[in-house]
Amino acid sequence: MTFAELAYHVTPMGALSLRRRRMLALDCDVLEVKLGEDFLMSSLFTAGERALAHLSVEVAPAGELDVLVGGLGLGYTAAAALDHERVRSLAVVDVLPEVIAWHQEGLVDLGPRLSSDPRCTLIEGDFFAMARSGDLPPPGRFHVIAVDIDHSTEAWLNASHGDLYAEGGLARLAPCLHPGGVFGLWSDAAPDETFLARLKSAFGRADAVVVPFDNPLREATESCTIYRAWVD
Known about the structure:
By secondary structure, the protein is an alpha/beta fold. It has helices spanning 47-57, 76-82, 97-104, 111-116, 127-133, 167-173, 193-203, and strands at residues 2-11, 14-23, 28-35, 38-42, 65-70, 87-94, 120-124, 142-147, 177-187, 204-215, 220-231. A hairpin with a 2-residue loop joins strand 3 and strand 4 (38-42).
């Protein structure tokens, strides 16, 4: 395999790198994002990111939708949301301006699509701080809020994220959704019944969908979890 580092930045969260890797065994190029020692994302595994958008939008209220995505990454959740014609507006919040620049400069494959779609706005900001304060971007109240930032409900990129996954943090999100609105969350872990109970307490209704996907590197099927919660 061959390797090229497309971008490298020193950020307050650690060293951030964007890499393109040629995987000869699979005959494909793969984009990878790494933050410090954490592998954040690979374009080889995007089923969960896309499922987060589709599973959330598909059960959202009828009519046009205003959608907020927390976490930009390589753009797969945002692009999947834009696949739905009834999405009227999409705000994508990411704490790292460097990641937003990758899309605006066309360094990542989906960058041109997201940057050129008039429905999509890329916003630099800390989603967790916004959720904590209620200072979400316009329109401020959404039909769908979908989050893909941390590895799971218990494995966080930053300790400051932890309060979102507590019942109080979840309860603060509920008023940011229209009646019938959906909060969706990606997790790399198996469904957590304790967290699911918190979601039900904060929102009223919730479920956990296991999404299987192929891992060609291991010749195996793996899975992630998409949590969904509805405002009654």
